[in-house]
Task: structure prediction
Amino acid sequence: MNNLREIKGRLRSIRKNRQIMSAMQMVSAVKLRRIQTVVQASRPYAQRLEALVSTFLNLKEEPALQHPFWLRRSVRRILWVVISTDRGLCGSLNTNLFRFIQQALRERAGAQSAVALLLIGRKACDFFKHAQAKAADFRIEQAYPLEEAQAEIIVRQVCDLYRKGQVDQVDLFYAQCKSILRQVPARLPLLPIAPATCPPGSVVRLSSPKSGVLHPDQAAGLQKYAGLFEPDPETIADDLLPRYLESRVRQILLEEQVSEHSARMIMMDQASKNSSDMIGQIQMNYNTLRQGMITRELADITTGVEAMA
Result:
């Protein structure tokens, strides 16, 4: 009977854990839909800003547009911004990211440039503080939780380091969400700025008053208009480029949260299914043991009756 009590206690424990995991799956699904809505709402602004910065890059040869954020220089100090999660129970999401970064560090073995890490997320803080005690091929610039991370603060800190010459290159490391079922580590260059090609239907070139207004261009079947710098290209770049960097970092932070909740939702769903399989197997063992005990008791009763007869 003690075995039956142990099995019943184990069944009760697994059922409670299954309820918790099912609840976590539903919470992650709700948060995932909410963040996906935010990402979709912010995407047009980010794409338009990307196109506008691409427009400036087309004119970067002009003296007025030699902005430090897109001028390349010799790389002696590199800053890697590592974005991870604050909580676990999301499968191998963080583990794959950390392995990806460690592989990048090993590939740089013997390089002249030094690497500093700006850690965002408690998991990254815990992992790299422990790894720093074993290896001295990088240093930690700063670390804080993901829930306290704001794109404006990150960009302000990174831009200050870049302007002062304390870093010559800035890269972002994060978990890119390819789909709900697949998240892969990714590396995105942040500084110096080198945005993607200008998408169709957006501004292609701008002109200064000195060079005159450019004629409209035809591309991808859509009309693209030339613009006029007002007040001047340098002032616009000083205001535009930090906004572009903030938009880019904000999209990455949102994508990291999408990856986290999608991974956690899948893991909790798989854990719930495994719990159901365990419950079925343990219930079968319980029934077998109980049936054996009943059979033995009936055999004892039958033997006793026959002996009394």
In short: The domain at 27-266 is CATH 3.40.1380.10 (Pyruvate Kinase; Chain: A, domain 1).
